[in-house]
Amino acid sequence: MEVLVVGAGASGMMAAISAAGMGAYVTICEKEDIAGRKILRTGNGKCNLGNRELRTDYYHSSDNELLDAYFSKFDEEDTIRTFRSMGLIIKESGGLFYPFCEQASVVRDVLLSNIEAYGIKVLYDTYPEKIVKVKPDRFEVTFDGRTREYDRVILACGSYAGIDKKDRLPSDIDGYSLAYSLGHTVIPVKPALTALNCKGDFWKEISGVRAEALIKLTCDDSYIGCEYGEVQFTDTGISGIPVFQLSHYVGANPDRSYSAVLDLMPGLDEDEYISLMQNRMLAFQGHKVRDFVIGTINSKLGEYIASLAGLNMDDAIGDSTEDKIIEFVGLIKCFKVDIKNTKDFTHSQCCSGGIPLRETDDNCQSVKTPGLYICGEMLDVDGACGGYNLQWAWTSGYIAGRAAGSY
Ligand SMILES: Cc1cc2nc3c(=O)[nH]c(=O)nc-3n(C[C@H](O)[C@H](O)[C@H](O)COP(=O)(O)OP(=O)(O)OC[C@H]3O[C@@H](n4cnc5c(N)ncnc54)[C@H](O)[C@@H]3O)c2cc1C
Description:
Helix 1 (about 10-20) runs parallel beside helix 4 and helix 10 packs across helix 11 (about 320-335). The N and C termini lie close together (about 5 Å). The longest helix has 18 residues, at about 390-405. With about 400 residues, the chain is of the alpha+beta class. It has 12 helices and 21 strands. The strands form 6 sheets. The protein has a 6-stranded antiparallel barrel. Strands 7-2-1-11-20 form a 5-stranded parallel β-sheet, with helices on both faces. The chain folds into 2 domains: about 1-190 and about 350-405, FAD/NAD(P)-binding domain; about 195-340, no CATH class. The structure holds flavin-adenine dinucleotide (FAD).
């Protein structure tokens, strides 16, 4: 059994090891001159490679039932067990899995040392120009004008996320077009887990501010979802994990009209908040507006919101400022921003869209071209922040490799 894995990223390396474990002769071709380049950047260089709380509701996909079937074959415990058996010690922090040494490079190196131990051939700077099924169980693959035959092919080419456009293969020979040439459809690929560009010309004024917030996303005024955490204000809009988690929706339907409403004092319910602010207004009668504003929320953000409410920081608090202070107080709990779009692929951590899951069976085998397997982010599966995307790479890579490598 000769298996070709296209792509030496997270899912491709796992697929190659798992196919070799079944006794297959495995070759990986990788378009770059190194393997696992993206793994090195994961988890801010620490690689968050899984999560204790593995559930399909942490994923977006065209078929969550099938996703369940995959995770029932290889779940978070299997991730720990498999990496341990490959030589990696994993630690858990707040439910998130990391290599004990907190070095992403070690995850890549452990995969590579197992690839070497199995005698798997890695062809760097190599990518297929064409893949054709020539016999019921044979694929002819063309690299650089020369052809080679394999019994099984696993596509593990990843997505466009985190890659500069100039570093991508031309769209007529990239992974998605290889799958398309073998009978698959491709759900439009869009950036996910990324920052949001927002309307308005004030962003530079508050750029750099980080604030705890509850952020509610609406689309055409209908509620979409809500996330809590540290929001970062940038030159062009909002970023941070809670924003990343909501970005999928904006990326997937960019023509709709989205807004985010930020509660900048999320710890307090309505009544507590009103009573806190009423007491504050009484206590600061006659003081300057600045005294009331400073000490509520982040000062740069507070000053900007005060100016939105029409307040002058040097005015004395009194009857003439009362309405404006009420408006300021309301804006802290309900700061609405209109969203333009997501950041581009280069600035995203994963992509929505790809090959529909229903075009593969529960072994990641193509239902369009049997003998072809597809795994990782190429499939229409994108997870939340927190190790879910790498978990999907390990799960789908393991399943595809095991099935492709068995006779
Ligand atoms: C900055 C950043 C941080 C992230 N942090 C995390 C995190 O902490 N936790 C988490 O779970 N997820 C994280 N992710 C997401 C995670 O890295 C990906 O979901 C995961 O790597 C996808 O695995 P993959 O094998 O599908 O694709 P990749 O890992 O991207 O691998 C695809 C490989 O295929 C190669 N290739 C592509 N096309 C071809 C071709 N035609 N021929 C040959 N080779 C080809 C590519 O060069 C690449 O090496 C992060 C992503 C980014 C960008």
